[in-house]
UniProtKB/TrEMBL annotation:
<keyword id="KW-0812">Transmembrane</keyword>
<feature type="transmembrane region" description="Helical">
    <location>
        <begin position="75"/>
        <end position="102"/>
    </location>
</feature>
<dbReference type="GO" id="GO:0008233">
    <property type="term" value="F:peptidase activity"/>
</dbReference>
<feature type="transmembrane region" description="Helical">
    <location>
        <begin position="15"/>
        <end position="32"/>
    </location>
</feature>
<keyword id="KW-0645">Protease</keyword>
<feature type="transmembrane region" description="Helical">
    <location>
        <begin position="114"/>
        <end position="132"/>
    </location>
</feature>
<protein>
    <submittedName>
        <fullName>Rhomboid family intramembrane serine protease</fullName>
    </submittedName>
</protein>
<dbReference type="InterPro" id="IPR022764">
    <property type="entry name" value="Peptidase_S54_rhomboid_dom"/>
</dbReference>
<feature type="transmembrane region" description="Helical">
    <location>
        <begin position="168"/>
        <end position="189"/>
    </location>
</feature>
<dbReference type="Pfam" id="PF01694">
    <property type="entry name" value="Rhomboid"/>
</dbReference>
<feature type="transmembrane region" description="Helical">
    <location>
        <begin position="138"/>
        <end position="156"/>
    </location>
</feature>
<keyword id="KW-1133">Transmembrane helix</keyword>
<feature type="transmembrane region" description="Helical">
    <location>
        <begin position="209"/>
        <end position="227"/>
    </location>
</feature>
<keyword id="KW-0378">Hydrolase</keyword>
<dbReference type="InterPro" id="IPR050925">
    <property type="entry name" value="Rhomboid_protease_S54"/>
</dbReference>
<feature type="domain" description="Peptidase S54 rhomboid">
    <location>
        <begin position="74"/>
        <end position="226"/>
    </location>
</feature>
<dbReference type="GO" id="GO:0006508">
    <property type="term" value="P:proteolysis"/>
</dbReference>
Amino acid sequence: MIPISDNLHFRERPIINYWLIGINIVIFLWEIKLELSGELGAFINTWGLVPSQISTAVNHALINPAALVVVFGRLFSLLFAIFLHGSFSQILGNILFLWVFGKAVENILGHQRYLGFYLVAGVVTGLAQIIIEPNLTVPLIGANGAIAAVLGAYIIKFPQVKIDTVLPLIIIYIPIELPASFYSLWWYIQQLFYGIGSLNIPPTGVNQPSLAYWMQLVAMTIGAVYVRKKF
């Protein structure tokens, strides 16, 4: 199922949502350039979120406070990794969900609050991953956690809104309408296909550790609880 749009209409343009989509696309094009030059693997392993690197830096800082500088440097990857993607299917799926569900969430939160909500959700998802799997050596990248939070907020606020959806059947595409709540399940099913069109990022297995997708449940819960309490 491919979500296309909803039937909600707002006066305010979702400017932040447009910018987030644009930034993700531009950075992914940059990743393709790095892949062609053979530099992508080193870049992702440096700037992607690698839980073992951060947990090791924290352990060193507990012994030697001067190592806090390294911790702060590694923590930047929590934010930057949100804008990196490992495959064509991942970037396309994330952008599509952000386009369909992000517009309404930005309108109910406002531009500045929506941006903060998006970034904080992505960072908190990364922190949860570090806590659960501190020894993980695979770089985690993608806006999946941030977008899961957006989806959670949308479903709490607009659970019965019908989403215009395309059902692809080989070469036939059938337009249908599905409730927004359906996509809380479909989001996780879609994650299974994010390896399609993967970029060449060593080591193999990027974005496929045992618990990474479960962390998105944390993000979706954050989005749902935040909107429910605030609005």
